[in-house]
């Protein structure tokens, strides 16, 4: 049986993925991690969970997190990050600047790439560093 919850891709297949395809996967991984953290932190009402998820998953919060993880990235991770940052999406949401959206796409591309490689420990390590920056950004808004 295929495990769709933990898909694994080899390096050749990953190189064939566009930055936006990786960001598509990474967006859901980042949101799932955020939702898991919120529930584990004791938020239990769906209204509070939804509101906090939106605040922490938006492009501005992810961009804030991007700044703090960049020095931690390996050369290979930096290449994926740059590829995601330089991707050209068809549109940018009104709620974020093009710069914020580019950094958010970079984070999502990196998270998608790490997830599809099965590097869950590294995802957790980076998420723990991103989270305080995202929380701080969200509190200022």
UniProtKB/TrEMBL annotation:
Domain RNase III, residue spans: 21-118
A Pfam family that this protein carries is Ribonuclease_3
Q: Where in the cell is it found?
A: Cytoplasm
Origin organism of this chain? Answer: Butyricicoccus porcorum
Name of this protein: Mini-ribonuclease 3
Chief location of this protein within or outside the cell:
cytoplasm
Q: Which cofactor does it need?
A: Mg(2+)
Give the EC number(s) under which this enzyme is classified. Answer: 3.1.26.-
């Amino acid at each position: 049986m295929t495990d769709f919850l933990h898909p694994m891709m080899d390096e050749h297949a990953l190189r064939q993925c566009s930055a936006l395809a990786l960001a598509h996967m990474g967006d859901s991984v980042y949101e799932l991690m955020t939702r898991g953290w919120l529930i584990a932190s004791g938020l239990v009402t769906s209204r509070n969970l939804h509101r906090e998820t939106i605040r922490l998953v938006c492009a501005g919060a992810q961009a804030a997190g991007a700044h703090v993880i960049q020095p931690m990235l390996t050369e290979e991770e930096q290449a994926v990050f740059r590829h995601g940052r330089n991707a050209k999406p068809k549109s940018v949401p009104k709620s974020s600047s093009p710069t914020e959206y580019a950094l958010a796409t970079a984070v999502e591309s990196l998270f998608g790439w790490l997830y599809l490689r099965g590097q869950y420990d590294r995802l957790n390590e980076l998420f723990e560093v991103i989270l305080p920056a995202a929380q701080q950004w969200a509190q200022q808004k």
